[in-house]
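dumping the sequnces here before i forget
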Amino acid sequence: MREYTYGPFQSRRLKLSLGIDILPKCKKCTFDCVYCEIGTTEKNQLVSPEYRIKAPPSHGFRKELISILKHVPHLQSITFGYNGEPTLNENILEFLEIAINVRNEMKWIQEKPKLTLFTNSSTLYSKEIRERVMQFDLILAKLEAATDMDFKRTNRPHKDVPDIETIIDSLIKLKREMPENNELAIQCLFFNSYRDDFIPNDNPKNIEKVAHAIKRIKPDLVQIYSIARIPAQYYVFAIDEERKQQIVKKFRNILKNDSIKVNYY
Ligand code: SF4
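..and the predicted 3d for all of it:
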């Protein structure tokens, strides 16, 4: 039986990816995003960014990885983070070290798969967390709101999560501090809403502010996408292709920086 891994599956942004979940089987997250595709973050699952889980890898982790990876020599990403916020696990680097060792011991058809981390960015104000995170080849960090109102409506953070300006500042620091060979991608999920009294994050002011924040962060890549599965709240829904293209155009106009790739999915 598998304890840590999901897939491999074809991902829109990562191609063939093996998911690694390093949190206990119940969701733990600092956010309760309206669009979350793994369901609402219940009261007992919504935790402070200071909350830490001590869950080191069991002896089975290495064995489980090898048993799957030997069948996928064309894998492109070993991706941490599927059941909440992975940086809450104190032992994240122990998992990473095992994954790096296994990856280096195996034979690959093309390039070795990247070691990728999904984070919702809420814990990055901590230098200790940034130092852990920057050891991944590719960091996919969430930023889809840049006003406090949009942030609260969209991500519904735990009360201890810092304000959005602090989160943006920590992304700026992360990019400055991380090794040059590793990559930072900012992930922006934009959605629409059926409810007249719920302003979606796809509103002109927010889009513009997110673009200006990204201009300051200077990531390697920006990924614009939308809801693809059933969201936690029924009243939000995906924006269409045309809208994604408009947002890409708007971002490029504001960024005016060809070294930041802006893609949509
Ligand atoms: S940060 Fe990710 S896991 Fe947490 S609620 Fe938002 S979408 Fe779900």
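The chain has one domain: 5-264.
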